Amino acid sequence: MISVNFQGRSGIVLGVANKRSLAWAIAQQMHQAGASLCFTYQNERLRAKMEPLVEDIGGAPLFQLDVNDDAQVDEVFAAAAAELGGRLDFLVHSIAFAPREELEGDFLDTSREGFRIALEVSAYSLVRTTRAMVPYVPEQGGSVITLTYLASERVVPKYNVMGSAKAALEHSVRQLAAELGPRGIRVNAVSAGPVSTLSARGIGGFTDILAHYREKSPMKRNIEAEEVGKASLFLLSDLASGITGEILHVDAGYNIMAI
Ligand code: NAP
What we know:
seven-stranded parallel β-sheet, 7 strands, alpha/beta, binds NADP nicotinamide-adenine-dinucleotide phosphate, single chain
């Protein structure tokens, strides 16, 4: 019988900034399913925010990690595996960034540097962190999940270069899934509808986007972060043992609508 039970399995969660973060919603589901977790934070200011959160789930190791720092990526994954009994069964990658000015004007005006930064932080980091995880994945396999958005497939005004980054991220999911499949490592993405988080509020007109989704989606509502958490738990678990390279839309059905 298959059940969602992560007792004895452990993983690393990247991208908790605060209690509204999608990574936190995923972590809560994984914790309730019995997984052992560790977390990364980008800077000391965020560590102070994470400590009380992590206390709520009984504590977990915290590591400082800027995904742009290759040496730090390898060090943190080695330290995380050491803290978690020498194994990493799963990776939650919930990180994205683009310079604010790139999300304000026209895509036509995207700067070379803005394009590089957005793709490096939001897409290359999946490749780099997955590579750092692989040596610690047990023989029976593991699972990776990342967070994407519909702007990879369609034009969302103001999302600009972040749409390019999400397209690269989704391609990376498929490429990694193909290469890591023989090793028993599955790689998938959740394409989430808009949820009011720190990053999302940096997108121009985000409140209008929320209202637009409520009006146009089949379910006539916005999604909750918890629903992203539950879908991620599914993809990370043995319930999804035959699924890899998949982009699963968790958006109250918005993506199926033409008008
Ligand atoms: P969030 O709470 O602001 O999380 C974004 C995280 O990325 C933060 O923890 C941020 O840390 C981290 N990050 C950025 N640059 C980093 C770097 N160089 N090294 C390490 N960490 C870095 O927002 P969120 O909405 O939960 O975003 C999580 C993911 O979901 C993103 O990939 C986002 O694109 C995706 N997503 C969100 C929505 C939505 O509507 N919220 C919809 C679809 C997809 P700092 O705070 O230090 O920058």
